[in-house]
Amino acid sequence: MPATRGGRLVAGGAAVALVAALGWAVWPTPAPYTATEAVVTVRSGPDGAEPVALDTTFYLPAGASTGAPAPAVLLAHGFGGSKRSVAADAEELATQGYAVLAWTARGFGRSGGQIQLNDPDYEVRDAQRLLDWLAAQPQVRRDAAGDPRVGVVGGSYGGALALSLAGLDRRVDAVVPMITWNDLARAFLPQSAAGGPAQGVFKKAWAASFFGRGSETVGPVGDGAGPDAASGADVPDAAAGLPEPAGRRADPACGRFAPALCAIYQRLAVTGRADAEALARLRRASPAPLLGRINAPVLLVQGAGDTLFPLAEADANFRAIHADGTPVRVAWHTGGHDAGPGPTSDTDRIKALTGQWLGHYVKRELAAPPASFTWSRVAGFAIGERGLVATGYHVDDYPGLTGQGAAALAVAGPPRPVANPPAGLPAGISSLPGLGAVAALSGVGDAVTADIAGQHATFDSEPLTEPIDAVGAPRVTIRAASPTGEAVLFVKIHDVDPSGRASLPGGQVAPVRLTGLPTNIGAARPVEVTLPAIVHRFEAGHHARITIATTDQAYAVPVEPVTYTVGIGAADSAALTLPTLVGEPIATGAQIWLYVLVGLLVAVAIGVLVVVLLLGARRRRVAVTVEAPFEQTPLVVRGLRKEYPGGFVAVEGVDFTVERGQVVGLLGPNGAGKTTTLRVLMGLTRATAGDALVFGHRLGPGAPVLSRVGALVEGPGFLPHLSGVDNLSAYWHATGRPDDAAFFEEALDIAGLGDSVHRKVGTYSHGMKQRLAIAQAMLGLPDLLVLDEPTDGLDPPQIAAMRKVLRRYATDGRAVLVSSHLLAEVEQTCSHVIVVHKGAVVASGPVDDIVGDSPTTYFTVGDTAAAMAMFDKMAGVVSVAIDDTDNLVVDLGTVPRGAAVAALVRAGVRVERVVPRRRLEDAFLALVGEQTRGSGDR
């Protein structure tokens, strides 16, 4: 089904961890492959006679031949995408030795036909014909005539296709479906109440997004548009030999959907109720009826950040497949249709699982994968990891959605009236389809959710005395009364911190349709509600809150105004059950690196201790000038002044301190004195007045304590006729320190130059030299690292990696001082900042203290004029303007962002994005202004 707007609904984002390799720490040099594009015409339809032209690319690894055929992978894309959406994954698989066939599904991109929504007679039969095509290729390994050795991999829409294909065609050897569905009727009409009507509440926002993606490519054939910039898909082109789908222009409201499907959606969108034809068609488009026929081993990958296809869909797939004894494994990750691919450490984990699955069942070269269940949760923020870091866990057996244990919390509160407004507007927000990742990274996180006053009731627990790791589907009982005998409600669980800020784990909500209700709450019977499964830690001191609301922008609600009465449990209180699960942590590459580093540091420390003990008497005879109060402080700068001949004063009275564990940014406009300060610190020039201490030792040219300092100040300088690794070795020997005191392996890993470290430096680009220079500065793991513009010449991925390296480096008592003119990098990398202007320090301290809490916020909304009018009238708002991208730039003044979002929702304005303005720039300009000097000193 749909992927997300952050990656072609899943086309890019849903392949989330699509198949890379068999390990995640060291990647082999990619093997060459050939990629051949072709139009393959297959015959499908109920009678198997309807021709449809499919746009394909066949990736064949080098070395594959009739004498050495390669195992194959059939690679399906997400809804709204094309073969191009999975090209990177196909290339990755081809480098691993698989013959990969990627294709654009019927109704999308340059392929013909109409969208039939994974109908067994159409899309699934198309895929069967592609299996025939693979079996006919002499370079593809076969198990029998017409039977290729093949795994099927796909995300979302492609994942459901993979499952259905495996259920209908026993030639499939392994399946890896990702963030996909079990029953499309339940996914789009979910019902969370036990004993309620079978048909739940229509998930209108996701359905509209999905339908829009199927109709957006409408246009004349051969219009010269080329790739569709909005969708990332290919526009059909008559010149490519791909015929225009029949009826494509006849009804622009339906786009490339089959007319019968289009009519079903239109009825459903208008009424919010599915008729028998719609339910039957949605279930026909689901893997559920075919799962009992699957004999190929299945790795089910599902995302916890997914309001389209939540974890329950993978659970239902597991139970149906496992019941027949087919090998099946479940892996949950932090990504999904809302959350995108998730942190790098998490996608690496999924890549490893996928590679192991295909390597055993398709290549048949690896040991059998375990049946263990793995999951992960976001553990915090980390530089370079998409802003987040995830911790993975595993247990031997998959426990389902009920966990292995349970924590019962009492939630309480009296019954309350709640109103469903006319037409369901204004409506509360639980999640914005496909924008969960945007909200999480915007700085407001779950605060973008909002409930409307008078439309919801809350019931709280007592504060927790210890943390609870919830892994599974929470359960709670509610009561409701309605004058109409029916009610549509939305039940959700919030995590409320001690300050009162509430977050909604995963943006998940349980839609409930209740019938046969009494008019009086006293006569209402308790109804158990199973909330969507979550992976979330409720910290000690926080409390849980159950919210029962009448509206939600993501769902269809009754259009008639009505007031319900809702309550909790049977006597103003109820037990909220949180499923719990305790597993073994899975080490990441970063953690392994840290363990190795700690071990090396321990070894060095032991060696130093031995030397100290053996030479103690001699050391006592040596006169040491050290200021005891600063013996444990990496850097103290006092009254630093530098005057050049001619009277030019570069720095005057500079004072600052760098403590252990800090990454300190030295900021200032050109000519502020940054580089002069660093040159003095490195002993490259003498100060006119003042001094600098490193661990209590006064600095000066040639000072012995400089051996504890690593630096990159004057820019990278190497011998061009030597290789990168030889330059590092020559530098280390020049220091007079023994080879075993250098950390060459770690330094080369930091450089990230691969085999290029063995090339002559004279062939390096500036960026490569910069990376080698940074590795040289870190070669001895010095206690203080001083870097001047370390990201100069690096591309964005390398800059992101550098952030992580610097933050990781400032551990175990080490510290980093980094000078940069890139405010965004300093804000994301540094814990503290020093701002110099005209040779003097104008501000210093933690970044948060320097920055403050800027109220300026960007809003992307559906109705800009209405939003401006609302903000103009809102008390406390300082200013509102429109930038050149049609975003509102609002100085909220004293108005909290959450209150502003709620006000927009109440005004009926659709909120698409909320992003705090980058704040360090504001603070910097306020301190130094926008004029800079042109002395050339930085």
Task: Write a structural description.
25% of the residues lie in helices and 25% in strands. Mean pLDDT is 81; it is low at 1-31, 217-249, 382-386, 436-448, 589-598, 616-624 and 930-938. The protein is of the alpha+beta class. Helix 15 (744-751) packs antiparallel against helix 16. The chain has four domains: 33-187 and 286-370, Alpha/Beta hydrolase fold, catalytic domain (Rossmann fold, 3-Layer(aba) Sandwich), CATH 3.40.50; 405-580, Sandwich (Jelly Rolls); 627-848, Rossmann fold (3-Layer(aba) Sandwich), CATH 3.40.50.300; 855-916, Alpha-Beta Plaits (2-Layer Sandwich). It is globular.
Descriptive terms for the model:
938 residues; alpha+beta; Rossmann fold; Jelly Rolls; 4 domains; six-stranded mixed sheet; 22 helices; globular; disordered N terminus; disordered C terminus
In short:
The chain has four domains: 33-187 and 286-370, Rossmann fold; 405-580, Galactose-binding domain-like (Jelly Rolls, Sandwich), CATH 2.60.120.260; 627-848, P-loop containing nucleotide triphosphate hydrolases (Rossmann fold, 3-Layer(aba) Sandwich); 855-916, Alpha-Beta Plaits. The chain has 22 helices and 40 strands. It has an eight-stranded mixed beta sheet, sandwiched between helices. The protein has a six-stranded mixed beta sheet with strand order 32-33-34-29-35-36, with helices on both faces. Strands 15, 18, 19, 20 and 23 form a five-stranded antiparallel beta sheet that branches.
